[in-house]
Amino acid sequence: MAAMHVCATILTMDASDWRIECDSVVFERIRSERSFQQILALTRAVNSLQFVFDAFVSDALDVSLTARRSRINSFLFGSAILYEGLLLVERMNKEFRNHDVFMQGLHALLKDPIARTLRDSHMGPARNFAVFHYDSEELGRILKDASVHECEFMEGRGTSTLGCYFPFTDTLATELWAGRAGSEEEFYKNLGKQMGDTRDLAKRFIESSHRLILRCVRDWKFTKKKLA
């Protein structure tokens, strides 16, 4: 991914397996530093975002219920994680406001007009009402305006419950993310653009995070080790 290319550029990585680590002297020196703790939180956000990227089924020809469930939920969870990541960036400003890599990368995302619209109007509501919390009243609000020819409520195969999928509620969650229910062509055109903008923002978040993380571990005297 692009983020790994950034990693390669900064620390001149090669194609072999490697690990970045520090000894006990370095660890004891930084373990209580607020900046180190916030970098650890940032790495959790990056790990989580990378997980949902990996879970996304990119094969457009795969229309199985597993693929459809993975596509929409990787997007919804990715949006919620990205929302939390941007909140973390706000909290990091106190410690990193004089750090050029932070200010030019992650902090700049906070001022991006597209990022602000996505965060306030789309990612926040989805995070609060349909991803990290399940709000029946908000789903009911969307439901009132939903245009339904057939309510495709549940899908499955055989008698197993583990592989079942509830597509209708994921559709409602997506409409909640969009801010309204809709079935017209313009709605889906706008939704597609907004989802693309969100994926682009997530990639920028990961890339900017890698730049900051790698600059910090370099400054803290971490070292690179090749693995067998």
Could you please describe the fold and organization of this structure?
It is globular and about 65 Å long. 69% of the residues lie in helices and 4% in strands. The chain has one domain. Mean pLDDT is 87; it is low at 1-10. The chain has 228 residues and is mostly helical. It contains ten helices and two strands, in the order αβαααααααααβ. The chain has a two-stranded antiparallel sheet with strand order 1-2.
Assembly state (oligomeric): single chain
Order of helices and strands: HEHHHHHHHHHE
Low-confidence stretches: 1-10
Q: Residue-averaged pLDDT, rounded? A: 87
Computed Rg: 20 Å
- Overall number of strands: 2
Strand order of the largest sheet: 1-2
Q: In percent, how much strand structure appears in the residues?
A: under 5%
What proportion of the residues is helical, as a percent range?
55-70%
Number of domains: 1
Structural class: mainly alpha
Count of helix runs = 10
The rough form would be described as globular
Termini separation (Å)?
23 Å
Largest sheet: 2 strands, antiparallel
Would you kindly provide a brief summary of this structure?
This protein is mostly helical and 228 residues long. The protein is built from 10 helices and 2 strands, in the order H-E-H-H-H-H-H-H-H-H-H-E. Strands 1-2 form a two-stranded antiparallel sheet.
Question: How are the SSEs ordered, and which strands pair?
Answer:
Layout (H helix, E strand, L loop, with lengths): L1 H10 L6 E4 L2 H7 L3 H22 L9 H32 L3 H5 L1 H6 L1 H19 L4 H10 L21 H12 L6 H35 L3 E4 L2
Antiparallel strand pairs: 1-2
Helix pairs in contact: 1-10, 3-4, 3-10, 4-7, 4-9, 4-10, 7-9, 8-9
